[in-house]
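Pilot study result, target chain (263 residues):
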Amino acid sequence: MKKGLFFLTLLIFLNIIAFAIPEITVSESSLNQEISIEMKLYRLKLDQNGHILNFELFDSRTKKYNLVYEYTGDSYDILDAQTMTEILPSNYNIRLAEDQTHVEIIYFFPNGGQKIYKFYNDPNYHFDVQFKNLNGYVVLPSISFSSGIRYTDNVFVSYIDKSVLTGENLDSALAIYTPGEIESSQNQYLFPLNYSDQKVISYLGPTKKIFIKETFDGIEEGNTYSTIIDLMQDLGKFGPFSNIFYWFVAFFWWLFKVTGNFG
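Predicted structure:
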């Protein structure tokens, strides 16, 4: 147990030390009508209708990408409040930051509304989805069957242990904070839009407290992060030993941010 924690801690330290802002690769395929984005920690594809088609996480141990999400009608899709049919954009634009810190995919809707994905090029596996001047419901994505999903108020988590197709170990979590209260309807998880500027904060990465905390700790004075951990514990994750391991890693993470190294 102790030996395993040591090697896992060492692996995280090496990942943080080695991380420098790499180049973001963005390409478009007119044949498949797809947008491909690749970064150091993950890669994904989107279509021209605003859907994330697939999302893969890079495994530093095996040096390959593992599929953790595929589109099944649940990629922050926008549904009409009356008919519950999807509202589709008419155009899109790609905006890559000059300093390579993030990339935005902006989808434009006929009524002047926008849906904006913002993928960050940093060690924390997070991205935002912003909605402007849109009304209806947003469908939240998931990476697991219903048994691996928990939600309460405006916090949603989905956990997958192993790939259903290959049996490969994934141990990945999707955690989402929404600006509106989440409700469940016909195996979909939704929250309402009301024409205002609303932003969803998402984490999709390894089931590690240190990365989840970096994404959510500043929201609602840390209550969102605490709720996510509670929901994950209800799924059987983060036992008593994980707190000891987390405090140890968190100290070195703090040291790295203050000094630029681990001393």
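One observation from the pilot: Residues 2-23+74-259 form a domain with the Beta-galactosidase; Chain A, domain 5 fold (CATH 2.70.98). A full batch analysis is planned for the follow-on phase.
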